[in-house]
Amino acid sequence: MIRWLIKHLFPRSEWLFIAILLSGIFVGFAMYAFYLSRAWSYASDKPETCINCHVMSTEYLTWLHSSHARQVCNDCHVPHENVFKKYFFKAKDGLRHATIFTLRTEPQAIIMKPEGQKAVMDNCLRCHAPLFAYVQRVSTENAFASRACWNCHRDTPHGRVKSLSATEKVMVPLPGSAVPSWLKRLMQK
User: pTM value?
Assistant: First the structure.
């Protein structure tokens, strides 16, 4: 069985050099894409990660000046039931975002998908539980059964500006240079 796999999976000796060369080129491009996209940063909770793509600049700036600026994006936008669900959600959502931004199909106005809305609503309830208990006591109806928090709190935390064209000259921290430091040193010589 192993001999059959080796015979059929590995190239013949006359093609071995070309196969290794092409594999090296593919791995090199994959590593450079990983570096260029700052893919490692998506495992963190830093809000600056969200502006690796310029499309999120409006959301970043409006969050930065909001009452939720002490929270990070993942505090609201990622499930917190357990670490596996958190990172699975981040990976799935991140791959969707990466595909959209790579193919340049991002919408003019960012709108959360239903799964993201559920995560945000669950996190509103998690952080503001005492407030919700009070509102349910004084309310004559179950306000949370049919409405999301942002139905009333439209400005929290991203404001009403939801379009790239509305904040075209927004000032956000720029990501560092995409040129690796070893290449900068080589170019200076």
Answer: 0.69
Identify the pLDDT of residue 93. 87
Strand partners, 109: 163
**Segments forming the whole domain that contains residue 22:** 1-36
Q: In Å, what is the CA distance from 66 to each residue of 43, 60, 70, 114, 127?
A: 24, 10, 9, 23, 16
Please state, in angstroms and as integers, the Cα–Cα distance from residue 128 to each residue in 59, 94, 135, following that order: 22, 27, 11
Cα 87 to Cα 25: distance, rounded to the nearest angstrom: 30
Q: Angle at CA 33, nearest 5°, toward 169 and 61?
A: 25
- What pLDDT, on the 0 to 100 scale, is given for residue 49? 80
Q: Which of 87, 71, 85 is nearest to 124 (CA)?
A: 71
Domains of the chain: total: 2
Residue 31 domain flag? yes
Q: Do 165 and 82 fall within a single domain?
A: yes
Average pLDDT over the chain reads 80
Cis peptide bond prior to 180, omega within 30° of 0:
no
Residue 157 resides in a domain: yes
Residue 121 falls inside a structural domain: yes
- Structural domain contains residue 103: yes
**Structure-block tokens of residue 91:** 């990976």
